[in-house]
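Title: Prediction job returns without error message
Component: structure pipeline
Severity: low
Priority: P3
Assignee: unassigned

Description:
Job completed but the reporter wants confirmation the result is attached to the right record. Sequence as submitted:
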Amino acid sequence: MSIKFTGILKCTGISALLTVLLVFATALLSYFTNMSETSLTIAVYASVVVSVFLGSFICVKASGGKALIHALITTSLFYAALAAATFVINGAIVPNSHFFTMTAGIFASGILGAVLGK
């Protein structure tokens, strides 16, 4: 079994698109309700984690083999794209508790997607 890079790119795109849709839905929900800042933060984290999980899960199912490698490459590409977007928007990446929480959540959900997808 070889590494299927086109499948990895498609699954990374699926994760990114799903993240945008879920974060947009969260933004609408926070606009029309009295959602607290803590709840909003948790909802955004959950959106990203679910998106990465589903992207890596789909990638592993489509790849047929080397589940962990496919899921980790998909997760790493998503993480790199998110870091690049953060850098462009904020002008810097600040290593604080939110950064480490998001990093841990992204990679944990990617690995979980590999395990459950296999």
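Comment from assignee: result matches the submitted record. The helical segments are 5-32, 37-63, 67-90, 97-117.
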